[in-house]
Amino acid sequence: MFVLLSVVWHCEYMPRLYPVTTLARSASVIEAATLHWKDYVMESTELGALMLWTCIWGTLTYSDESPLRSLGLSAVSNSTMMGTAVGVTTFIIIRSPLGRRSGAHMNPSVTLTFLWLGRIHRWDAAWYVTAQFIGAIAGVLAAREILGMQLSASSVQYLVTVPSKHGNVATFAGEFLLSGILMASILYSSNHRRLARFTPTLVAVLTILFFVLSPSRSGFSVNPARTVSSAVFAGTWQGVWIYFAAPCLGMLSAAAVYIKTVGLNRVYCAKVFHDTRSVCPFRCEFEHVYEET
């Protein structure tokens, strides 16, 4: 992991021309798939890898058979360890060649927010969301093949996300708030000339913080595809509507606040991290970031 981290970190953010392969507004669903199928495969692979790693670390952290259980760590310590593992993995994926190319949304709520902001074609958004659900399910399936019964044990249960003991309202509020903070952070940093290069780090730090704030096995979601991928195998759909509605509404609300305070013209691209050296499939105007004063 640390070798990969070193490699992606040294792929520096540099202002230079980049190729753009934007769909025409009138493009059909077939034309979108023909031109951007590689981006969809990358997006699916990224979330699949994230879910695989999440399941592996979740099993190491919470399984009764895990050697880490003998350490007697507190709930907060377990959540911090989980958050660090997932946060570092997220950072690596965002800065990887795949993440740089596809934009590393890895979340239907992120994709739908950029669709609402007008930075992604409707058919690209549809394919991205489809790819994210497929990738997430495939990642958990791969984890099950690797981990076997440990992943399905009651102490792990596929890392399924369910409402907290405080009820649906509190869970909805938490998901809404965390999703809004995440989207606001992405928008403010990725569209700022001096901060854009630090967006992957910011997302990773927020991931760790969110896990610490949710010191339980089910943790937090802020991602419909992440919730569904676990629920498919665990057979637990309790409060699943929360993990669709709250993240989408939270991120859209954050985007609305961003537009009101900064302006729609300051949303330059749908990529979480735009390194200006990778192919861009979106309605991209990232070159304008260098016009900032």
The number of distinct helices, counting runs of at least 4 residues, comes to 11
Radius of gyration: 19 Å
How would you sum up the major sheet?
none
**Residue share in β-strands:** under 5%
Q: Give the class from helix and strand content and strand pairing.
A: mainly alpha
- CATH architecture type: Up-down Bundle
Q: How far apart are the first and last residues' alpha carbons, in Å?
A: 38 Å
Give the full name of the CATH homologous superfamily: Glycerol uptake facilitator protein
User: What string, H for helix and E for strand, traces the elements in order?
Assistant: HHHHHHHHHHH
- What is the general shape? globular
Unreliable residue runs = 1-17
How many domains? The number is: 1
What is the CATH class designation? Mainly Alpha
Please tally the β strands and state the result: 0
CATH domain fold name: Glycerol uptake facilitator protein
- Roughly what percent helix? 55-70%
Mean of all residue-level pLDDT scores: 89
Report on the architecture of this protein.
The chain has 293 residues and is mostly helical. The chain has one domain (27-291): Glycerol uptake facilitator protein (Up-down Bundle), CATH 1.20.1080.10. It is 60% helix and 0% strand. It contains 11 helices and no strands. Helix 5 (108-116) packs parallel to helix 11 and helix 6 (122-147) runs parallel beside helix 10. It is globular and about 55 Å long.
